[in-house]
Amino acid sequence: MLTEKTEQSGVTAAPGTTKARIERAALSLFCARGVDAVTTREIAAASGVSEGALYRHYPSKDALSQAMFFAIHKRLAEEVEAAAAEAAKIEDKARAIVAAYVRIADEDWTLFSYHLLTTHRFLPYADKSESPKSGNPVAIVEGVIMDAVKHGELPQGDAALKTAAALGVVLQTALHKIYGRVKGALGAHEEALARAVIAVLKS
Amino acid sequence: MLTEKTEQSGVTAAPGTTKARIERAALSLFCARGVDAVTTREIAAASGVSEGALYRHYPSKDALSQAMFFAIHKRLAEEVEAAAAEAAKIEDKARAIVAAYVRIADEDWTLFSYHLLTTHRFLPYADKSESPKSGNPVAIVEGVIMDAVKHGELPQGDAALKTAAALGVVLQTALHKIYGRVKGALGAHEEALARAVIAVLKS
DNA sequence: GTGCTGGGTGTGAGCGTTCACTCACGTATA
DNA sequence: TATACGTGAGTGAACGCTCACACCCAGCAC
After folding, report:
1. DSSP class per residue in B40-84
2. pLDDT score at A9
């Protein structure tokens, strides 16, 4: 709750612009009721603009929903990659990656929730245009874990499984925050999450 | 892949009935493209019946999607509760609960995927009709963990957090199986999942 | 047996509504 | 004057759902 996004700060657009207000309104509605259930009329009304204005900035509702998803998807990938690069030992990499996730989530919780809740909708569209690894936070995490296993830092075992389990610790906690089961900012639990992730990796 | 559900076995209905075929067809389509994106015409076509027949068995598309969600939701709650009851120590409870999840998932993977992918859509409808704990697998797991913390079997710490992290290990792995990142039946990873869950709980 | 009845089940053209999207038009800034 | 931005009534298409009709078959009287 420390750094809450105002209604003006955009996802793709500069803060204060009409495009930013459209993105913010769409984001909230998409999170609350799902992309398909939200109408363009509602987005327009919630943005305080007309429906036509919406189509000045995005060619379609689908393009709007996709652009916002891949904005955070790409951001996550970049920050996870940077976090992994800034540490040497796997424990420190894990801590840095958890810190990156938590920071991005708390910085723009609605956008992060949107990513979490719609991943299965947009992932099929992802690897078509880009190389399978770059731009995908999961693939980057998996690469880090594979390396650590290869170098004997982590016990042998299916890296894909370790990746899923480690990410699950953080992402399910975020989900439970959406459901109201976990309270407060994710950042308040960063230390516990990091310890849990490391425990999973070493198990 | 051992015990794959045939197209005839129902979710709510007896195998081989029209209702069961409708449910199976709807389930596959809902998983593949999302509830809202699937039309009643498509469900009817995929079931091999007319659209009208669909409304002989369910009053609405929404009722169909809800009934199937709560069928597995209730089943998960019951089996998790039973699993927790059959063991004394928290490690054994954890193993039994993981085993229950894995078994239910592999028994009807499409239905389990559906539950996983649509939880955030239907959960708001859940606690209105029932008591908040019974019938909710997450609440039951949280109860088990709270007890274990209280009795000194697990280190002190936020039980809600431990619950999310432990469930995340299993559920994110299931998600990654949907994404094609984890291969084979969940059962093949049961031992690794159980160890990871226990490691998280003790962290 | 035959004939009648009634409930359960399946059909598909059709209904009213709502949706994503368009476009002719206004306005502001350079 | 030209370009960008904003407007909102309007459009065709597609949606969830209905309904008049047909069929099947068990139960029962004769």
Report:
1. HHHHHHHHTS-HHHHHHH-S-HHHHHHHHHHHHHHHHHHHHHHHH
2. 82
Nucleic acid strand D: bases within 7 A of protein CB? 5-10, 14-20
Per-residue pLDDT reduced to its tens digit, B100-117: 999 999 999 999 999 999
pLDDT value, residue B2: 44
Which of these CATH numbers, 1.10.357.10, 3.30.360.10, 1.10.3730.10, 1.10.443.10, describes B69-202? 1.10.357.10
Domain ranges in chain B?
69-202
CATH class held by domain A70-202: mainly alpha
Is strand C less than 7 A from the beta carbon of A172?
A: no
Q: What are the tens digits of pLDDT across the range A131-187?
A: 566 789 999 999 999 999 999 999 999 999 999 999 999 999 999 999 999 999 999
Judge: A179–B34 Cβ closer than 8 Å, yes or no. no
Best residue of A138, A172, A177, A189 to probe chain B, by most B CBs closer than 10 Å: A172
User: Are residues A21 and A7 in contact, defined by beta-carbon separation less than 8 angstroms?
Assistant: yes
Torsion of CA B169, A191, A180, A166, to 10 degrees: -20
C-beta atoms surrounding A185 within 10 Å: 15
* SS3 of residue B24 by DSSP: helix
Asked if residue A8 keeps its beta carbon closer than 7 A to nucleic acid strand C, the reply is no
Mean pLDDT (whole number) for A75-103: 98
Min Cα distance A161 → chain B (Å) is 7
**How many C-beta atoms lie closer than 10 Å to residue B56's C-beta?**
12
Nucleotides of C under 7 A from a protein CB: 9-14, 18-24
- B57 CB and strand C closer than 7 A: yes
Could you tell me the sign of the dihedral formed by the alpha carbons of B33, B34, B36, B42, in that order?
A: positive
- Give A145: exposed, middle or buried? Use CB within 10 Å, 0-12, 13-18, 19+: buried
